[in-house]
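Quick start: read one record
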Amino acid sequence: MAIAACVASAWAYAVGALLQQRVADRPLRLLLRLPSWWGAVALNGLGGLLHVVALRYGPLSLVQPFGVLTLVVAVPLAALVARRAVTRLEWHGMGLTVAGLGGILVMTGSAGIGVLGAGDVLGLLLVTAIVLTALAGASGLWVAAAGGIAFGVSSALTQTATVRLTAGDFGLLTLVTALAVAVLATVGLMFTQRSFRAGLGAPLAVGTLTNPVAAAAIGLVLLGEEVAGGRVGLTLALCSAVGAGLGVALLVRARETSRPAAPVPI
């Protein structure tokens, strides 16, 4: 059930990202008038709902790695819509990013479905607010990273809220957590929309990378997850992070090489 929901969620996010990128140069006041943008919002909402279902039936460390499918689907889909072939650089960039992210997440694991306590939730929200405020005025791929962080924290809080709600807990902490999920999902959507002004592949790769990495960090620090293999595992995770970074760099380069050359002044 968790895996099926993850795959469907990735497809919804991928199509939503493609629709968002096609209108990325529009200001917000114009986006609000575009049916296609609202379609993207609806698809993101559907992806989020399926993500909630996945988190109800599987631990965070199982669900988050499937987010890489969004990148694998979105880049070829964008090429198909543009009636062009996926370039070698794009394939290599996607491959390195997916392999690197997979290597990072394989090194972390969870014994079950973790739930955050009151102190953990409040501390996490405070740190997240500070980080996102610092990145609010950023540009380029930093904006994509901010969106990924917002979605990653939202995922961790979603699991906590879902477990508490299904257990019949409608206390203040549960309601605050659910409200924080909605706010972070909206903030992540806005950051992501801005990031797509720099193209689709590289911003989506950065967001796809920072989202599960942020969630994995929360799992390690707050939910008792551990890096498998000790120092060896940590070394492999760091090497995987370097590989993922190289993948993002290739996607950036692929976008630069696909731009039409500027006219030479006479």
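Confidence is low (pLDDT under 50) at residues 260-266.
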